[in-house]
Automatic annotation (TrEMBL):
Residues 6-119 form the PiggyBac transposable element-derived protein domain. It holds the Pfam family DDE_Tnp_1_7. It comes from Homalodisca liturata. The lineage of its organism: Eukaryota, Metazoa, Ecdysozoa, Arthropoda, Hexapoda. This is PiggyBac transposable element-derived protein domain-containing protein. InterPro entries: PGBD (IPR029526).
Length: 119
């Protein structure tokens, strides 16, 4: 993944999270303890860490995402817990967007199934 692509992903994720939070506030669905309530913009450095964690998780399977942050001495992975909290990882995972492009909806003329990830 290039530096430019990471910049695009970071901006798109922040834009999506901002829009999602505003939408939830307007509709009265923003709960006090939801991940989006505590959202703060992701930085490029943090996005790189998040992507590194995703790659690592693809190579080493656990039963659940929270298992990567286990404090059990047998399962404990020091660098994972030092990289970011499980709660922040889950928030980024929920808000992750690869592009801010508006795409044509499925079934509409001009629909492109790869539109959100096409360069």
């Amino acid at each position: 993944v290039s530096e430019g692509q990471i910049n695009v992903i970071t901006r798109a994720t922040n834009t999506y999270a901002k829009n999602k939070r505003e939408q939830m506030q307007r509709s009265g669905k923003l709960k006090q303890h939801s991940r989006i309530h505590f959202w703060h913009n992701v930085t490029i450095v943090e996005m790189k860490k998040f992507l590194a964690l995703l790659l690592y998780m693809g190579l080493t399977r656990r039963k659940s995402i929270s298992d990567y942050w286990s404090t059990n001495p047998i399962q404990y992975i020091h660098w994972v817990s030092q990289t970011m909290t499980c709660r922040r990882f889950q928030a980024l995972h929920a808000m992750l967007h690869l592009t801010s492009k508006k795409t044509v909806l499925k079934g509409q003329p001009g629909y492109d199934p790869w539109g959100k990830i096409r360069p």
